[in-house]
Amino acid sequence: xxxxxxxxxxxxxxxxxxxxxxxxxxxxxxxxxxxxxxxxxxxxxxxxxxxxxxxxxxxxxxxxxxxxxxxxxxxxxxxxxxxxxxxxxxxxxxxxxxxxxxxxxxxxxxxxxxxxxxxxxxxxxxxxxxxxxxxxxxxxxxxxxxxxxxxxxxxxxxxxxxxxxxxxxxxxxxxxxxxxxxxxxxxxxxxxxxxxxxxxxxxxxxxxxxxxxxxxxxxxxxxxxxxxxxxxxxxxxxxxxxxxxxxxxxxxxxxxxxxxxxxxxxxxxxxxxxxxxxxxxxxxxxxxxxxxxxxxxxxxxxxxxxxxxxxxxxxxxxxxxxxxxxxxxxxxxxxx
Length: 336
Description:
Blueprint: E1 15-20, H1 26-35, E2 39-45, H2 49-59, E3 63-65, H3 68-73, E4 79-82, H4 89-98, E5 102-106, H5 113-126, E6 130-133, H6 140-151, E7 157-167, H7 184-200, E8 206-213, E9 219-228, E10 232-239, E11 241-252, E12 256-259, E13 268-275, E14 278-285, H8 291-303, H9 311-330, E15 334-335
Parallel strand pairs: 1-2, 1-4, 2-3, 4-5, 5-6, 7-10
Antiparallel strand pairs: 7-11, 8-9, 8-15, 9-10, 11-12, 12-13, 13-14
């Protein structure tokens, strides 16, 4: 293998990234890594050398490793993109940190609060950056919605509603399996509830959930309610058995903001502001969806800026989901 260009060897510091697995979601970050001026896709790891070699050849990745540990042991890799299955996120994020790597981990960051706390401790001990890959949080549309909600143009926030559903036809898909962190709430429900938490800026006081289970024991659909301080409420639904839907509606005392494509916004989007009888269409120039999380990591590592999705924020997401699942299992509201 040839020697990679390290960040200190060039005038503009460049981070060498390694993909931890050959998961399909990798495709979303490959293009941003290839176009970023501060990042370089340098390596990929799989559980077999043959799979890694084929993947590296397909995507023109310089290095291929036949085990995850080999990637972590490479001293020339700066950042790991952890796209392993949900139940492996915490273990391998911590391993990467202890190997001296920064980590961008796919959502959810972890499946238990003690796992999140262990990640937080490992990040503090190693001084490395960890961020959860909620790509929509970096998009100009999301930033504009948050700015408008905080500006007071809607009046006092009252209600936030959202949904994210699609039909998951593959019955053997890992997202159907409870033991591996499957379920629609972990996969897509995390989006509307994290969006609501972002807008309110506070953690919910109480949650209530209902679920329908699939054959693998994980929820096939989920409906949830969140009660925040200051009499702000949120409702969402998610699932693997309904037609494709995604939206966010933010209701204030003086206006309503509708976001038709909140979680996967494109290069050009529009949001609708309703005040009284008037509805205003607001156009937003966007960007490639996943470039934001790549550049956010570069900002955090190279410029010392705090990641937009903090570990405290990620802990709140996990705590909210766990509370909702507990509520669905017991049939009772859960105080957080």
